[in-house]
Amino acid sequence: MEEPTSVRLFGSIKITKMKPKWFKNTIAFLIFFFGLSASSYSMDDAEVFAFTDFIGGLVKSSSIQKNGFFCVLGSDEISSALMIKDRKILDITKSLDKFNSCKAIYIARGSEKSLKLEIAKFNNVKIMTIAVFDGFTEIGGMFQVQIGRRNFEIISNPKVLKDSNVKINSLLSSLIIN
Fold it and tell me: Where are the alpha helices (DSSP H) in 62-157?
């Protein structure tokens, strides 16, 4: 199925060109694909989708008191895959003031600069924060996800976790290593 796009030239000549509906999806895929190859630390596709599934499952299976969207802040392989997999995810990278609409935020690798103030704001309104980069919980983040010996491991910030009243299921809590 195609969508017509009309353009008027010189006031009276109308040119209609047809764009396939898949055009936007193809462009989004190409941007995603070339964005992955240009990043400094790149994961293979299986690793990206494993992280995507695990993080999505962590958010869905957790009991979060705050209602809202699952959001992403920044851009990396995982945030791109999360947004492709679930169109309801809100990207707050360009409009950080929308963070109050979020119940959980995945913070992309590369966004760690000047993040400490934002994380304090997220913690004040009890938003679950998740990242995969080293040192995330030391700067106030709630969950850092990493691959351990045989499975995913979660490093948590116990103080932030307790203050936010976020509850994770027992299977996931068995993956917490601190």
Answer: 77-85, 116-124
Q: Where does CATH 3.40.50 sit in the chain? A: 41-173
pTM of the full structure: 0.72
Average pLDDT of the residues in 163-177: 79
Burial environment of residue 127 by CB neighbours within 10 A (0 to 12, 13 to 18, 19 or more)? buried
Task: Provide the strand spans (E) within 51-149.
Answer: 69-73, 90-91, 102-107, 128-131, 143-147
Could you tell me if 137 and 157 are in contact, meaning their C-beta atoms sit under 8 angstroms apart? yes
- Residue written as token pair 């919980």: 137
Spatial contact of 111 and 78, defined as CB atoms under 8 Å apart: no
Query: How many alpha carbons lie under 13 Å from residue 149 in its C-beta half-sphere?
Result: 1
Q: Does domain 41-173 have CATH number 2.115.10?
A: no
